[in-house]
Amino acid sequence: MQSPQPIVNEFAITAATVNGSGSQTANMVLMRAIFQMGIPVSGKNLFPSNIQGEPTWYTLRVSQAGYTARPATTPILVAFNPRTANDDLAQLPAGGICLYPADGPWQPQRADISPVALPVRQILDQVGVSQHLRPYAANMVYVGALAALLGIEDAALAKAVQHQFRGKSSAIALNLAVIRAAQAWATNTASPAYHRFRVTRMQATTGMMLIDGNTAAAIGAITGGVGVVAWYPITPSSSLIESLESYLPRLRPADDGTTCAIVQAEDEIAALGIVIGAGWAGARAMTATSGPGISLMTEFAGLGFFAEIPAVIWDVQRVGPSTGLPTRTAQSDLLAVYYLGHGDTRHVVLLPGTMEECYSDAQLAFDLAEYLQTPVFVLSDLDLGMNIWMSRPFTYPEQPLQRGKVLSAEALAKLTSYARFADVDGDGIGYRTLPGNPHPLAATLSRGTGHNERNVYSERPDDWQRNMARLWRKHETARRMVPRPVIDLHPQATVGLIGFGSTAPAIAEARDLLAAAGIATSRMRVRALPLGPEVTDFIARHQSCVVIEQNHDGQLRQLLQLHCPAYATRLGSVAWCDGLPLTAPFVRDQVMAVLEQMRELALVMSK
Amino acid sequence: MTQATVNAIGLTKNDYRGAPSTLCAGCGHDSVASQIIAAAFELSLPPHTVIRMSGIGCSSKSAAYFLGRSHGFNSLHGRMPSVTTGAHLANHTLRPLAVSGDGDTASIGLGQFIHLLRRNVPMVYIVENNGVYGLTKGQFSATADEGQELKHAGVNHLPPIDVCAEAILAGCGFVARSFAGDAKQVRELIKAAFNFHGAAVIDVISPCVTFNNHDRSTKSYTYGKTHESPIHDISFIPHYEEVTIDYEPGEARDVQLHDGPVIRLRKLHRDHDPTDRMAALALLEEARAANEFVTGLIYLNEHRPTLAETLGIGQTPIAALPEERLRPSREAFAAMMAELTGAG
Ligand SMILES: Cc1ncc(C[n+]2csc(CCOP(=O)(O)OP(=O)(O)O)c2C)c(N)n1
Ligand code: SF4
Ligand SMILES: [Mg+2]
C-alpha cells in the first residue's frame, strides 16, 4: 500500500477489551494525553452489566472541529478481545488500522486494512512486569503503540499518566515504562500504519477540563447547599452520590460536625421518604436514582407535590422497561417523571445537556424546590452522567441560596393570622413554617389528604377544587422560573431541530452535515418542563420542526404537541433508542427522511 | 386558671390537645391519644420541640387529635419511618412522636420499621395494634393471632408478627408492650420513651371496637382486661433526687436514663431483667407459648448511638446551618477547579 496523506486531528479509536481488565485506565491515559495537546476529545464507554470478563468497547474521538458526538465509524481498532474481534474487525472501514496482541489466538484477515501485531508478552518481559500486574499493564502496550503511530507528545503522555495514577509513584513508573517500551517498538517497526493518522498540537483545550456529568452534579449539589442525601445504589446514578461523598469533606470541612448527612437507604421508597422528611424539616435534601428507582418513588413524588415539600431527585436515565439495559443510555423517563404520581400530578423537570448545566442545575434544583415548595426532578442520562466530556471550568455561584418563603417566629409575630396555603402573593405559593418554630401559630400537620387553605382536613369539593387551582397556578409560576430553552436561529432556516439533554453534540454536528446537504436549520434545546412561550415561538417560526430524542414514543414531541396544538402537524419525530448515544450521520439521515415524509403528507393534505 | 392546671412551662393540658377526634366512639386509639396528651403535659414538653408523625390508617389519622401546637406529618401508608428519619437528619433537636397501626407497621411498613430501628432514630414509636385494618374496614393485619376470627375476613391461619420481638432483633433499645385500657401504664411508658436516647417502641394493644372487639378476639377490651399480665408496675420519675420512698431489696428496680430521670419498675409476679436481651426475647417467647398477654417494659438498652451521632452531625441542626457552612469557600472551590483543569 502506498502511504496516503495523513489524517490529522480528526479520527476515532475504538478499544475493544474485556471488562475488569483495567482497560478503562489505559483509555483515559490516551484521552488525557491527546487533550493535553490542546486537541478536542470525547469518549464513550460501552460497557456490559457485569463486573468482569464481558466485552467492553471504548470509543475515543479526536476532533479538531470540536465534534464530540459518538462517531459513526472509527478507523482505528484496538482488538484486545478475541471473542468480539471478528465482529469488531468487520466494522473497521477500509484503510483502517487494527492493533492486536501478536501472542494472542486471533489475527485479522483483511487485506484492505493495516494490521499491527503488538508483541505484548515481549514488551512486558522487557519491562519486567510482575505476573499479577500483567493483565493490567498489557493495556498500556496499545497506549504506547498508538502514541508512536499517532505522534502523541511525550510530555503530554507523562502528564496523563501522572493524572491517572495521582500520587502513586510506583504505578506511574511502571505504566510509563510499558508505554515507552511499546512506543519504542512501534517507532522502530516499519509499519504502514505509522503516522497514517496523526495528532498535532492545538490550543483548543486550554483552561478546559475532562469531567463526567455525575461528578459535575455532585459538585453542584455541594455548592448548592445540600444537607441530606438518601439513596439506593443503581447504575448509572451511583457515581453521582459516590462523587458527592468524596468531594464533600474537602469542599465543606466538617469542623463542627458534618454539614451533609448521607444515608444509604433500604430502597428507593425510603430514599425519597427520607428526602421528603428532611425537606419538610428545612434541609436541602436530594436523592439520585434511575428508572427502576423512579418507579418506586412514585407515591412519595405525589405526596411531595400535594403536601408541597421541597425535594430534589436526579434521574440518571438508562434503558428500560424493567431492568432493561442497565449500562446503556436513554431518554425514556421524560413523561414518567413529568407526571410521576397518581391522580393529577405534574412536576418541574430540569434537562441539563452539558457538564456546566449538570453543575448549575444541581444548585438551581434546590432553589426552585425550596421556592416552589415542591419536588424538582433533574433528568440526566448515562451518557451525560458517566461518560467523560470536555467542559469549561465551573464558576463559583454569585447569588446567595434562595431559601424561599419561610416564616420565622419573628415574622409570624407580626401577623394577625396565618394560613399555610393562602395564596397571598398570587403566585400559587404559600408561606411555610418549619418544625421547631416556637410561635403558637406555626404548627401545622402536613398531609397527603384533602385540605383547605389552613391545611385542615377537608373533603369539600370547593376546597379541593380551589387547592388544585392554586397548585396549577404554582405550576405557571414554575413555567416562568425554569431555564429558558437554548436557541440558535439560522436566518434562512425553514427547518428547526429540537432536542434535549445529551443528544446536543449529535444534533449540533448533524446541523453541519445537513447544511452541507443544502438544508439550513435552526436549533432549540429544551432545558426544562413545564415548557415556556419561547418554545411556541421557535416552532411558529419554522415550517417544519423535527424533534430528536432517545425514546420510542417521541415523548418530548408529545409534550410539544400538547403545548402548542396549533402547530402539532409541524412537528416531526426522530425517536430512537438502542442504548447508544446518537451519531450525527444517523441524525442527518433520519431528519432528511422525516422532512421528506412531512413534505409528502403536506402535499396529500393540500390536494 | 389555677396554678395546678398549668405545667412547669405554663401550659395547660388543653395546649397539648389536637382537633376533635373523628374515630369511632370507644376506639382504643383515642385512649392512647389522651395518654400522649397527658404525658406531654406532665413532662412539660415545649410543643414546638415535638413533631408528631404518622402513616395511614385510623391510628395514623389520630396524629391530628393530639399535640395541635406541634408540627406534624401524616405521611404515606407504611412510610412514616423514612419521613421521620429525614426529619431527624435535618433537625436532630426535634423529638418525634409517631403513631402507627399494625397494618402500617407490620404489613406494608415492616421493612421501614426495622430499618428505622436499625439506624436508631431517636423517637417515640407507638404501634396502635388492633390486629385488623380499621380504616379499610376489617381485613386481617399481620399481627392477628392464629385462629382469630373476623366477621368478613373469616379465620386467620397464619402466625402473627410480634412487633416487640422484631424490634429487639432490629437493635431497638426500648421495647414495651401495653394495653390501651391500662391508661397509667401507657402514660408512664410514653414518658419514659420520651426520655430515652434512641428509638423507643411501644406496642399498644388498642382495640378496634367496630371490627375486632368481640369476646374471642385477643385484641378486644374484654380480653385485655381479663388477661393483661403486667411484668411490673412502672413509673417514670423525672427528677431522681426527689424520690424518697424506699422499697425492700428486690422489690423494685430503678433504671437511670442518660439525662438523669429514672424508670422505676416495681416487681409484680415475676422476675424480669429488662436490660437482658436474651431474657426479653425469652419472655416474649414464653408468653406466646402460654397465650399470655404480658405488658410492661420488655427491653431496655441505652448504649447505641443515635443516627445523628453515627453520622457525626454537629450541634447545630443541618436545617439551621448558615450559608457559609452549606457552601464551599471560594478558596476550596478554586483549589478543586484548579486540580480538575490541571492548572493546580
Ligand atoms: C399504598 C396504600 N395501600 C393501601 C392503602 C389503603 N389503606 C389505608 S389504611 C390501611 C390499613 C390500615 O391498617 P392499620 O395500620 O392497622 O390501621 P388501623 O386503621 O387499624 O388503625 C390500608 C390498607 C393506602 N392508604 N395506601
Ligand atoms: S374502625 Fe376501628 S380502628 Fe378505626 S376508628 Fe373505628 S374503632 Fe378505631
Ligand atoms: Mg390496625
Instruction: Find the CATH superfamily of the largest domain in chain B.
Output: Thiamin diphosphate (ThDP)-binding fold, Pyr/PP domains
Second rung of CATH, namely the architecture of the largest domain in chain A = 3-Layer(aba) Sandwich
Largest pleated sheet of chain B:
8 strands, mixed
Helix content of chain A: 25-40%
Query: Which range best describes the helical content of chain B: under 10%, 10-25%, 25-40%, 40-55%, 55-70% or over 70%?
Result: 25-40%
- Known CATH architecture of the largest domain in chain B: 3-Layer(aba) Sandwich
**Count of individual helical segments of chain B:** 12
Number of strands of chain B: 15
The low-confidence parts of chain B are none
Distance linking N and C termini of chain A = 58 Å
Q: Rg of chain A from C-alpha positions?
A: 27 Å
The CATH class of the largest domain in chain B: Alpha Beta
CATH topology of the largest domain in chain B: Rossmann fold
CATH fold naming of the largest domain in chain A: Pyruvate-ferredoxin Oxidoreductase, domain 3
Unreliable stretches covering 5 or more consecutive residues of chain A: none
One letter per element, helices H and strands E, the order of chain B comes to HEHEHEHHEEEEEHEHEHEEEEHEHHH
Number of domains of chain B: 2
Q: Could you say how many structural domains of chain A there are in total?
A: 4
How are the strands ordered across the major sheet of chain A?
11-10-12-13-15-14-21
Oligomer: heterodimer
Question: What does this protein look like?
Answer:
The complex is a heterodimer of chains A (607) and B (344). Chain A folds into four domains: 7-206, 3-Layer(aba) Sandwich (Pyruvate-ferredoxin Oxidoreductase, domain 3); 211-391, 3-Layer(aba) Sandwich (Rossmann fold); 409-481, no CATH class; 486-606, 3-Layer(aba) Sandwich (Rossmann fold), CATH 3.40.50. Chain A is 39% helix and 18% strand. In chain A, helix 17 links the parallel strand 19 and strand 20. In chain A, helix 1 (23-36) packs parallel to helix 4. Chain B is α/β, with parallel strands linked by helices. Chain B has two domains: 13-310, Rossmann fold; 316-340, no CATH class. Chain B contains twelve helices and 15 strands. Chain B has helices at 28-42, 58-61, 80-90, 102-107, 110-119, 163-169, 183-194, 221-227, 277-289, 307-310, 323-326, 330-340, and strands spanning 50-54, 71-74, 95-101, 123-129, 132-133, 139-140, 149-150, 154-155, 174-179, 199-205, 228-230, 232-237, 252-256, 262-267, 293-300. In chain B, strand 5 (132-133) and strand 6 form a beta hairpin. In chain B, helix 1 packs across helix 7 (183-194) and helix 3 runs parallel beside helix 5 (110-119). The model of chain B has no long low-confidence stretch (mean pLDDT 94). The interface between A and B is large, with 78 and 64 residues. Bound molecules: thiamine diphosphate, iron/sulfur cluster and magnesium ion (MG). Thiamine diphosphate binds next to helix 2, helix 4 and strand 5 of chain B.
